[in-house]
Structures are given as structure tokens and as C-alpha cells.
Amino acid sequence: MADYRELWQKLGMDLEKHDVLCEVLPQLYGGVYLSQENRPEGMNYYNFVVSEVHGLRIKELDDHKKQGGKVVGTFCVFVPDELILATGAIGVGLCAGSQFWIEDGEKVLPRNICPLVKAFMGAKVSGTCPYFQSCDMIIGETTCDAKKKAWEVLDDYVDTYVMDLPQMKREKDYKKWAEEIYALKEKLEKLTSNIITEEKLHEAIKLCNRKRMALQRLYNARKELGVPISGKDALLISQIAFYDNPERFIEMTNELCDELEDRIKKGISVNKKGGKRILISGTPMAVPNWKIHHIIETSGAVVVAEETCTGTRYFENLVDESATTMDGMINALADRYLKINCACFTPNKGREEDIIRLAKEYKADGVIYNSLQFCHTYNIEYANVEKALKEAGIPVLFIESDYSNDDVGQIQTRVEAFLEMIG
Amino acid sequence: MEYDYYILFNTHTDGLMMVKKLKENNIKYTIVPTPRQLSKCCGIAIKYEHEDEKAILDIIDKYEIKVSGLRFLERKNIDIKFI
How far apart are CA A158 and CA A75, in angstroms? Predict the structure, then answer.
């Protein structure tokens, strides 16, 4: 197959160390994904993206840079992709979902912080992520203390710009967030030497909305009792949405949705044996973090939705397209993005309501609340979520975990007991 | 002993050309990451059913698709290790 080593070398990567990652990924993907039965044929596209994850897309980024284009990396669903696209830059949501990067992350960060933060730092420090290496700038945000302080360290390795996300949702917070979006606009214009015109921003808003609608269509198919696609596959599609070419992603996801809707009509389901329907709620699952989904779906249940940043928080609510002035569009962006109910906000009653609503919409038999270790906001917020779910009569299981293999057996036992209990 | 069968390519464009022709000819296939035992380079391979091998060879011949080989591996139970 294609040899990308020259390209990786040009990006300053540690080829020897990166080779270790290349060696284990096909096996993990084979075991978690290709071992599934009755997959939709449309999943071949996403198999292709994963197979070429450090190849073709990196070459596309390189070609873009050769023509003077910029690449901007992000880590959070609050960073508006619309602005990045409106400058002609390419935005890539960076992964940070692998245990592989933890050791290098711990060389510059404390051990007792969340694995996602340690992994992104490790990916950069070790020079083993070609996406990270392709980035001209990283846009960070203030969604937690670990990230907030890690940006200062990361800035030694790559230009890192930080958006100050308000932590409450009062009128003045909406205004402040709109100001932050304006400030990002200026920063991106300076980086790319491209002015964001009203026309360009409006086009970008429409493009991002189309991507959200494709994902909404995918998730709508999962509401069916005869669910036509596994949770693992849907998670993979959401993860790929963060870094794939948006137009190609929309086309291929809509093509897959045609197949899923046809499967629904024909009664073709991945849940033939009537396994329990599970809603996942909690922290993001970045590539290749497929651990919890794999445990649940090899225990006879099916994941029907994710109330996470790699799930509904990424695509629910469209940006209002009726505004065409710069002020109007920036305000529309601020409104849409501040509707996301992340645990970094206080109070955050909206998230409890979201989880209950989603559990009903997706006909979930139970909720598995998954939090990364040391993620204080999501860990602490569990108390209120648990109370709200109990009042609504929805069973819930709490899991706190990292990316390692160590607790797989223990989690499997707890998940199996939970599935039996809700049966 | 059971085996899995793969078509390997030098470039992803050759792989995608093969996919197009397999689709047109209604031959079942799965795009997979190239198994490391078969090649050290990253990228796509195509997994196929052994019974379709003759039809696949005909397609390669007819459309002059560049492949770097048809290979097989013994099927083993994969011990999943999250990374």
C-alpha cells in the first residue's frame, strides 16, 4: 500500500514510534469493527477513512498547505468550525483517544488529570500524530482547568489560541461569547490573510448545518426499534465527522442513511435478538476510544445514542440561516453554540433534561453514564443526573474509566449485571 | 484451518478503482486496513470471499487494475487490546 513515510518525515514525526501505532491499529480495528456481523455496506467508506487515517487525509492537508492554505486543530465542539471554513482553512478535530500517548503526555503534565488532555499533549510531544503535525494553529477553549492550563504548555510546541468560554448562560454570557467569536474571526483572518466576508460566512454556516443534518438523519435511524446500525459504527461516523472533508462526509453519510432507511423498511436490524437499548451519556470518545461501546455491544445490548461531544452535542441545533449581516451571523453562531449543555456550565439543568428527552426519543432501556477519570465536571454532575433519572424512572449505571485495557473485565461484569437488572 | 483473503494495492486510487468494479459486478467485498503481516505500509486493502477469486482476477485483467498482490492469512481469534 501507499508509502507515506516521506510525508510523515517532512512533518517532523518520530517514524519509529509512529510505526508502533500503525502496527496495533489495524488489529484493534479488526477486532472491534470488522468482527461485527450484518454491517451496512455503506460502512466501507468509513473503513476506508480509518485505513487511510494517517495517509490520504494527511496528503490532502499537505496539498492544501502547498497551495498556501492553513490547517487549524480543535478539541471541542464549542469552537465554531464555520469561522475556520470561512477563511478557506481546513479544521481538524484532533483525536486524543489513545493510551499510546499517555506516557509522553505525563512527561510534561501531572499524572492525575484526564486522559484526553494527557493524550493530546503526548501526541504533540511525541510527534506521532500527523494531524497535529499538520496544524498551523490550535484553537483551545476554557472548558476545564486541565485544558486551560495545558494550552500554556502546548503553546511551546505549536501556536495555541484560546477562546474564553463563559461558564454560565446569562444574557451577558451570550454577549461575551459573541465577542469571543468576533475575536477568533480576527485571529483566523490574520493567520490566513483571508477576510471573512458575510457571503463566505453564510456559505460556511450552511455547509456546517448540512453536516449536522446528515448526522441527525443517521441518529434518527437509530431511534427505530429495529435499529439498523450498531452504536460502534455510529460512534465511528461521528468521530470521522471531525476531520474528514465536510462535503465528502455529507455525501457518504447521506448515502449510508439511504441504505439504513432501506434496512428499516426491510426489517434488517443489528439487534435481532432484542438486546437492551442503551443511551451513553458523558465525556467525549475520541478516536480510537471504542472501549465502552465495544463492551456494551459484546454483552448483548446495543448503543442507540450518545449524549456526548462525539454524539448529539456535536450536531443538535442548527445555526439560524436567516441572518445575513456579520453581526446577525455572529449572534446566530453564539446562540447555537451556547445551547450545548456541557458540564462546564453552572447551573446545568439543561443537560439533565437533554438526557431524559434523549432516553425517551431513542426508546432507551437504560443510561450508561461514562466519565473519563479525573474529569471533575462530568464526575460531579453525575449526582444531579442520577437523581433526575431516578425521578424519571430511568435506570442508570456510572462508569469512570480511562483508555487502558486494565479495567475492561471489571467494566464488562458491571455492564452485564446492569443489563440483567434492567431486563 | 480457515483463511481470509486480501487484495493489496500500491495506491488508494487503485484500491478505489477495484471497489468500483467489484460493486458493478455485485461481488462482495470489505475495505480493511492492510494487515501488518502482509505489508508494513499503511492504507487500504480489500478483503474478499475465496469463491470470488476467479471473477476478481478477471476484473483485474480486464480493467488493468494495478494490484500489488492477492494474499491470504490464517484466520485467528483476535485478542483485543485497547490502545
Answer: 14
